[in-house]
Amino acid sequence: MEKSMAHWDATGGLEVLTFDLGSETFALEAVLVREILDLLPETAVPGALALVGSVVNFRGKIIPIADLRLAFGMPAAEATVDSRIVVIEMDAHGEPIQLGIRTDKVHEVATLREADAEAPPAVGMRWRRDYVRELVRREEGVIVLPDLAAIFNPLTGGDDAAGRASVH
Prior knowledge:
mainly beta, 45% strand
């Protein structure tokens, strides 16, 4: 599967929503973000991939909830007062799907610079390299741009090798 790269604008900028999972900071392209929700009661879905093992009912719409901690091999964590669900919209075979991503803390909408970005290193990564589109250096540390297409490939009907590897 071809690696999806960030969609930097003509000036080399990318507007993102930053959030934490554990001690790591991640970012999602702002154009994907539909809503930021307080945690809602989740319903487990028997037989679903562990990565997206539950759903929530939000305004009468059922939204699957993803735990990116599983994709990145991070330990489970209890929800805190800062925990949120970031609802994104992705394309699946030409159809938009909404998906909630559980976060530990949502920060801000920020503009990252392409000049500060680089591909994940071939060695020394503790995560699956194909799950990271780019790493972006900032004064506060490194921000991870996850490759949502690779992580959610089984959900969008692609080769399910990524899904099997992400289930613990």
